[in-house]
Design goal:
Layout: H1 15-28, H2 32-47, H3 53-64, H4 70-113, H5 117-145, H6 149-163, H7 169-186, H8 223-248, H9 253-265, H10 272-286, H11 292-303, H12 312-323, H13 332-358, H14 369-398, H15 406-420, H16 426-444
Helix pairs in contact: 1-4, 2-4, 3-4, 4-12, 4-13, 5-11, 5-14, 5-15, 5-16, 6-14, 7-14, 8-9, 8-13, 9-10, 9-12, 9-13, 10-14, 11-12, 12-13, 15-16
């Protein structure tokens, strides 16, 4: 907690102080979006009092309505509110950069030394834990989104659509949005937003950006500013993609990754788990950048690193660049790094554009059911998609070799009990399961 009296406003925060905070957060932000948001709330609202409770939740609700990783967007928003555009860019980059670098390192170890017994044993234990973690994510989002029979029906339909009918994820998102548009008009009471509440009486003392603090100049809405920032952001993305196209061709792997992960970023409603089926469809089935087993292994590695889970796209890009030997057999590491960098850049660029361009419009759709109903329906559909993802992972983890792997089932069951009954932390859970897998691999060896 802050040492200053509650009735004293903390001194202004310099850009240098903000730099070190966001860098530290990037290295310790384990626990998924819920854990990351909780860390920011504890540090920025309760202890440092950079921003008030009301303003923090106000920003969080806006980020939850957007596609993309909400914790990353919240960091960009707060950084932008405090230090304008450069502050927002700095906060977002520092929040995701450590996880990108760590995942590149882990991806290299995985591909170069993944056949070593110790590495294989660790992954054997982590993969069943991932199935439990995905189920827990479905439960967590479902308890927030499936508030009536209509939402439950949408979730079931989306699960069947992707698991049985094999419909592409964008079609499911579009269908849910249409249902939400119609339902929001015909039955508005069924399509109320189920996000975080913006009303809270909690107060930790006066903050630098308090409830009554006037909006800074960059937060005042201007159509010209919105258009300018949106065009600049889109122009940067287009310029990088055209550069890749001119160098390696539109059909080249890096250009394909740029376009594919841009689309993936626009579909990330409900967090990383929601878009993983789409990443699987494209990365494994369409472009064959990696195998289904590698995709599961990548998610297992992603769960062990700080930062947003959607950073698994860096693993997909790294493996795709490596396996396709983009720069020849003598430069596999360089090819992997290029693939990871391209995947991460095009995945996170839209999040920066959304906040820097649309930040002044935070209040524009608050309480307007017709505007938010499509997102409510999409959130319900996301639950069904995540359940289908758990079923997919379970099939590959528990039925390896065509028969049931009872040891993997036991590890996953124990992980479910730890998550649902004892609310175990993700990192401790993964460490315990990794140790169990290592012990079993040596026992069976």
């Amino acid at each position: 907690m802050s040492l200053l009296p509650r009735d004293t406003i903390p001194p202004p925060v310099t850009l240098s102080q903000a730099f070190w905070y966001w860098l530290k957060l990037g290295f310790i932000s384990f626990g998924g979006p819920a854990g990351q948001i909780a860390m920011m709330h504890t540090e920025l609202v309760e202890r440092r009092r950079w921003i008030s409770e009301q303003r923090f939740l106000h920003a969080l609700n806006y980020c939850m309505l957007l596609p993309g990783p909400e914790a990353t967007q919240l960091a960009v928003y707060i950084g932008w509110l405090m230090h304008r555009t450069r502050g927002g860019i700095m906060a977002g980059v520092l929040f995701v950069l450590p996880s990108l670098l760590l995942l590149i390192l882990l991806s290299w170890i995985y591909l170069a030394y993944g056949n070593l017994p110790v590495v294989a044993g660790i992954l054997y234990g982590i993969k069943p834990a991932v199935v439990a973690i995905v189920l827990a994510a479905a439960w967590r989002i479902g308890t927030r989104s499936l508030r009536n029979p209509a939402m439950i029906a949408i979730a079931i339909a989306s699960c069947l659509a992707i698991a049985v009918a094999r419909l592409p994820f964008p079609a499911i998102v579009a269908g849910a949005a249409i249902i939400g548009m119609v339902g929001g008009r015909a039955w508005p009471h069924l399509f109320q937003v189920g996000g975080a509440a913006v009303h809270s009486s909690a107060s930790y003392g006066l903050a630098i950006i308090d409830d009554t603090t006037p909006s800074p100049p960059q937060a005042r809405f201007s159509p010209g500013h919105l258009l300018k920032v949106a065009l600049i952001g889109a122009g940067i993305g287009a310029a990088v993609w055209l550069l890749l196209t001119s160098r390696y061709g539109a059909a080249g792997t890096l250009a394909q990754m740029g376009w594919f992960f841009t689309k993936a970023a626009m579909l990330t409603f409900g967090g990383a788990y929601a878009v993983l089926p789409y990443v699987y469809q494209g990365g494994v089935e369409q472009y064959q950048w990696l195998s289904a087993t590698q995709m599961i292994d990548g998610l297992a590695l992603g769960e062990t690193t700080p930062g947003p889970l959607i950073m698994i796209v860096a693993f997909v890009g790294f493996v795709g660049g490596w396996t396709h030997a983009l720069f020849g057999q003598d430069s596999l590491l360089l090819a992997g790094i290029a693939g990871a960098a391209v995947a991460a850049f095009f995945t996170f660029l839209p999040s920066f554009i959304f906040i820097l361009a649309g930040g002044p419009l935070v209040e524009s759709t608050r309480g307007n059911v017709r505007m938010t109903a499509p997102l409510t329906a999409i959130s319900a559909a996301v639950v069904g998609v995540i359940v289908s993802l758990a079923l997919f992972f379970g099939q590959h983890v528990f039925l390896a070799g065509g028969r049931i792997d009872w040891a993997a089932v036991a590890i996953s069951a124990a992980a479910c009990i730890a998550l649902f009954r004892f609310k175990a932390g993700t990192i401790k859970l993964i460490a315990a399961c990794a140790l169990a897998g290592l012990m079993l691999s040596y026992w069976n060896g």
